[in-house]
Amino acid sequence: MNTATDALIVVDVQNDFCSHGALAVPDGDAVVPVINELARDFAVVILTQDWHPPGHSSFASEHADKSPFDTIIMPYGQQTLWPDHCVQGTRGAEFHPDLHTDRAQLVVRKGFRRAIDSYSAFFENDQVTPTGLTGYLRERRITSVTLAGLALDFCVHVSAVDAARCGFEVRVLEHGSRAIDLDGSLAAARDNMRSAGVRLAS
Ligand code: VGL
Ligand code: ZN
Predict the structure, then answer these.
(1) Looking at the annotation, which residues are catalytic?
(2) Pocket test for ligand 1, best of 72, 85, 119, 178 (most atoms within 8 A of CB)
(3) What is the per-residue pLDDT across 56-66, written as a single tens digit (0 to 9) for each?
(4) Cα of 119 from ligand 1 centre, angstroms
(5) What is the 3-state secondary structure (H, E, C) of 62-124?
(6) Which pTM does this prediction carry?
(7) In what order do the strands lie in the sheet with 199-201?
(8) Beta carbon of 12 within 6 Å of any ligand 1 atom
């Protein structure tokens, strides 16, 4: 058992990121049994849920002449465009049916503002708008976080770097994560996490 100062943050284990989903991460379903097992060792379990309104600005379908996986410049910086995914209230936005969610104490929804995406569980993609998770963790006296889920090179990566930036001790469990890997994004994410002081464990 980990202590009460450690939290497990399970990132975006939702139908749209799993097999047959709108933005299926290769082998994404494989994280479910690993995370179910892991979660039993944590006193504090938090889930994140990508939760976009229809017509979200990160959807390629909202931009003329753009395709999924193109990048554009938004007022807050560079943004990859995605297939429509995790639309609020749809089956794709629900957690994977085999994910054990009963022990989760908090669900952090993110990406719910139309004009801005949020990869991180801590800050939206402008890197300044908070989700409130830092305050929650601090109030609960949590000092260290372990992350797993989808996708390793996007939401897990940015959440891990932000957690380190907020002063938490951070570990990412690679065996409980899978990557999208667009143009070397996985290698870049690993470098970035290591430079931020994140421990990559497998
Ligand atoms: C994610 C792309 C778009 C993720 C979410 O969970 O990694 N990736 N929305
Ligand atoms: Zn998304």
Answers:
(1) 12, 110, 155
(2) 119
(3) 999 999 999 99
(4) 6
(5) HCCCCCCCCEEEECCEEEECECCCCECCCHHHCECCCCCCCCCCEEEEECCCCCCCCCCCCEC
(6) 0.97
(7) 106-110, 44-50, 6-11, 144-150, 169-178, 199-201
(8) yes
